[in-house]
Structure formats: structure tokens, C-alpha cells
Amino acid sequence: METSASAPRPGGPNLVFRSLRGARSQGEFAAAVRRAALEIGERVCCDARYIGRVEAGEIRCPNYAYERVFLHMFPGRSLTELGFQPRQLVRGRVPRAGADPSPPLPQDPRHRGSPHLAHPPHPRQPPYPSASSRLPRPPTPRTGSASTDIPEEGDVLRRAFMTGGTAAVASLTALAASTPAAARAQGAGARTPGARPGAAEAAALRQQIRDIRLLDDRYGARRLYRPAGEALRAAHELLDIGARRQAVDDELHAGAGELAISVGWLAHDSGRLADARSHYAEALATARVAGDGALEAHAFCNAASLAADADRPREAVRAAEAAQQAARRQGTDHLRALLSLREARGWARLDDRGGAEAALARARAAHERGPAPEDPEWMTFYGDAEFACLEARCWAALGDHGRAVESGRRAVEAALLEPRFTRNLALYSAQLADHLARDGEPEEAAAFGHRSLDLLADVRSSRITDTLASVAGRLTPARGDAGVATFLDRVARGGG
Predict the structure, then answer these.
(1) Distance CA 371, CA 368 (A)
(2) CA angle at 337 for the pair 333 and 341, rounded to the nearest 5°
(3) How far apart are CA 437 and CA 473, in angstroms?
(4) What's the burial of 417, exposed, middle or buried (CB within 10 Å: 0-12/13-18/19+)?
(5) pLDDT digits over 479-494, tens only?
(6) In 3-state terms, what secondary structure has residue 396?
(7) Residue 341 CB-half CA count within 13 A
(8) Which of 140, 312, 334, 339 stands the most exposed, by the fewest C-beta atoms within 10 Å?
(9) Higher pLDDT, 208 or 166
(10) Cβ pair 86, 79 in contact under 8 A
């Protein structure tokens, strides 16, 4: 493959791709890309922002779906002739002499978009992933919705948090190249002898955690669980190598523990409760080894939530109390509020109204003192909406469905002020539908069920779909109402 003389230097803008756009706006060109994708049966979520990132040089090599679309749009050109860099260079591998720098066959689809898993495809593997290996097609966006893009496959989401901008590309490439797994995939001489992870790898690990949390807020856990697990395995490789400096080693341990909690949460939200329990235990062990009280409090906080969902309420109380003990020195008011809410739900599930109300009172008092700059970074999801949602779940567990509805309404209203938390709004709407159904309000329950289903066009969360299925079961006797009947039909169709 010949490299275009106009191809951009690493890190520079893609002037070739910009020239191909011509007089069209970035939005118009993105629409042309989507139309071209439909012509060849691909699904890409291309918008003006994506085109802007390509032209700025932030996307140095497109994923396989975009590659097929671009080559279809500009027949006879190679990726490098479109201004992109060879995939091997982007992934930290040097092409062999005389080898085609952009081979037509992608990697094993289980490893696509994962720079630290660089295995070649099986010789009998088809050139593109089979239909069975793709994620199910999400529901078609509604007419007049804010976005008319076609949702992409899971590998694009993997790339989204693996390469969140030019700086992230560099840091994550360094993270992957530092691992023994990457060295084995690239050959014994691929790693510099004595190379040890440093501050760049620790920073890349922290960025992965942030990116995973942001994508979970937007898309839910089901699409992200496996790629996040791959990132966790890479983090374990770094821990096995060990850093030269103790401060960096401590940072890697803290990052690996937080990443284990993130992966555990994705497993939890995907209905993989045993996997979630294992990841939380791993994070707790990491915290104990490192003497990290803040990480220990976070691990116990999530373990308490999991225990309540898994119908182990006494364990939920013990885990919440342990979290409060661990957070006694570093804890902030909002962290204390959240941990008290975890404890309250455990007491409520044990049908201990006194214990639940006492914990709720402590939570309310701490919450009203407001946020603080010292609040842990992982608590970005927590605010008035989450407080009201967790309070509602406590009242529901105590059988006080009227108060559960009242708190559930506050949760939805507050969530509407935070549009980036799409998954949470879908969850709060589904839970309010459940509270309304239990409180004998089938028509309004169906209305909030519809709202949650609308949001599921983008979100993938087993907890939400399971909640809506439960709501549908409760509303079946009220099928005579038109709104209820429509909701039941949508649930039966899988949310469409």
C-alpha cells in the first residue's frame, strides 16, 4: 500500500480527509457517511463531532466498521491515502518489512478495539464478524428525537473509552505496551528490557476509569462490561510488573482497585451478580493491602448495594457499617449520606422500620449539609436525584408505597436537570413506574414505563429491563387501559 504524500504527521490534522469533505459542512458529511454505511449493511454513529475529530487528527485510524464505510465511499484508496495512519503503528506495532500496513482482515472480533489484546485472526475466521457476533440492533430512534444517528456496535464503544482523544491514545498505548501480555503478542523483543510502568501508565489507568464511568452514565453497563474487563486485566499486568517508585506503585494499586469496582458495577448492572461480588472482593483486598481507607469505603459501599439486590439484607447492613467505619477519617457529608442510605435499605429489607428510619434521618441530615470539594471523584452520580431514588427504595421495601412514589417523583424531577445521566433517568423512571404500580396507579405507572422505554433506545441495563418486566407483570390486570396495553406490548416486543 502506498502512503499518500499528503498524509498527516503523527499527531497532526488530517488534511487529506478535510479536502475530501469539500464544501460540505461536517454535519452534512457525517450524514453522507451514515448513508454510505447503510448501503453496505454497516451501522456507524457518525456525527459532526466525529468528523471534526478525524480532521483534527485525534482519530489516527478508524475502527473496522468505519474503515469499510470510508473505503466504500472512496473506492481505490487505501486508509493511508485517506490520511490515516497504519493500524499497527497506532496500536504500537511496527509493520514487518514488505507487509501490507493495513491488512484487510480484522482481528478476532472478541479482541477488536482492545490495544492490549493483539492476537492475529484465526486463518479460517471470516473477514468480518458474523451476524451472531454483533450486538443486537437497538430500537430505531423515534421521529423527532434529539439524535437520528444509528447506534454502533460494542467495538465502537470500546474504542470510545480506549481512545478518548489524542492524549488518551498516547497514554493508553503506553499502558498496553507495558504489559507482559502485549510483549508476548508482539514478540520477546518488543518491550524495552527493564521497562517498568510509570506516571504515564498510572494516569492512563485513571483516565480509563473516568471514561468508563462517563459511558456508563450514557449507555448503561451491558455494552461496556467485557471491554472494561479487558482494561482490568491490563491493569493487573501492570501491577505484576511493578513500578520503580513507591508513589507510582501506590497510584497503580489505587487505580486497579477503582477499576475493579467499576467493572464490578458494570457486572452488577448487567445482572452478573456473582461476577460483581468477586470484583468487589478483589477491590477490597487491594484496599487492605495498600492501606487505602477511601478505596475500602468505596468497595464496601458497592458491596452493600449488591447484597441488598441479591436479597442478603443483613450482609448489606454489615457492609454499609464497615464502609462508614472505613470512611470515618476521609469521609465527606455526601459520602456519609450515601453510606447511611445503603444501611437504611438493608434495615428496610430486614423489615426493621426503626433501624431504617434512623439511618434515613442520618442520611438526610448529612445530605442537606451539601457537597464538598473533597467528595470522592467516583461520587459524581450522587446528588438530589440519587438521594431521592434510594430513599424511595427504602420506603418501598418497608411497604410504604405512597412515600415511595413521592420520593420517586423527586428523583425523576431532579434527574431531568442532569441530562448527561441518561441511564439514571431511565432507571428512576422505571422505578417510579414500579412504585406507582404497587400503589395502585396503573395508568401513570404505564406512562413512566413508556418514558423509561424511550430512553432505552440508547441505554443497555439489565436492571432497568428487569424492573420494567416486573412492572409489566403487575400491570397485566389493567390491560383494559389503552396506555397500559401499549406499554405491555412494548415490553413484550423488547422495548420497541
Answers:
(1) 9
(2) 170
(3) 10
(4) exposed
(5) 999 999 999 999 998 7
(6) helix
(7) 25
(8) 140
(9) 208
(10) yes
Identity of the residue numbered 390: L
Distance, CA of 484 to CA of 441 (rounded, Å): 11
**Distance, CA of 432 to CA of 247 (rounded, Å):** 46
CA distance 146 to 450: 17
Contact 254, 293 (CB under 8 A): no
What is the rounded (10 degree) CA torsion for 27, 28, 31, 36? Answer: -130
Provide the b/e sequence for 257-279 (b: ≥16 CB within 10 Å): bbbbbbbbbbbbbbbbeebbbeb
422 band by pLDDT with thresholds 50, 70 and 90: confident
Given a cut of 60, whether residue 162 has pLDDT beyond it is: no
pLDDT in tens, 6-35: 444 455 899 999 999 998 988 889 889 988
> Cα dist. 196→177, 180, 238, 241 in Å?
11, 11, 8, 7
DSSP string spanning 414-453? HHTT-TT-HHHHHHHHHHHHHHHHHTT-HHHHHHHHHHHH
The whole-number average pLDDT for the span 38-49 is: 78
Helix then strand then coil, in percent of the chain rounded to 5, is 65, 0, 35
| Arithmetic mean of pLDDT over the chain | 77
pLDDT for res 368: 95
| Residue from 298, 292, 296 nearest 251 by CA | 292
Tell me which DSSP letter residue 3 carries: P
Q: What angle do CA 464, 470, 474 make, to 5 degrees?
A: 140
CB atoms within 10 A of CB 131: 7
Using the Cα atoms of residue 450, residue 387, residue 259 and residue 309 in order, give the sign of their dihedral: negative
Q: Terminal CA-to-CA distance of the chain, rounded, Å?
A: 45
Long-range contact pairs involving 442-445 (C-beta distance under 8 Å, separation at least 24): 442/475, 442/478, 442/481, 442/484, 443/478, 443/481, 443/483, 443/484, 445/471, 445/474, 445/475, 445/484
Banded pLDDT at 145 (limits 50, 70, 90): very low
Q: Where are the domains of the chain?
A: 1-88, 153-185+195-291
Q: What pTM did the predictor assign?
A: 0.61
d(Cα 481, Cα 90) in Å, to the nearest integer?
A: 57
Task: Tell me which of 124-138, 390-404, 442-456 is least confident.
Answer: 124-138
pLDDT tens digits, one per residue of 446-469? 999 999 998 887 777 788 999 999
Asked if 474 and 235 count as a contact pair (C-beta separation under 8 A), the reply is no
The CB-side HSE value for 476 (13 A sphere, CA atoms) comes to: 7
3-state secondary structure of 474: helix
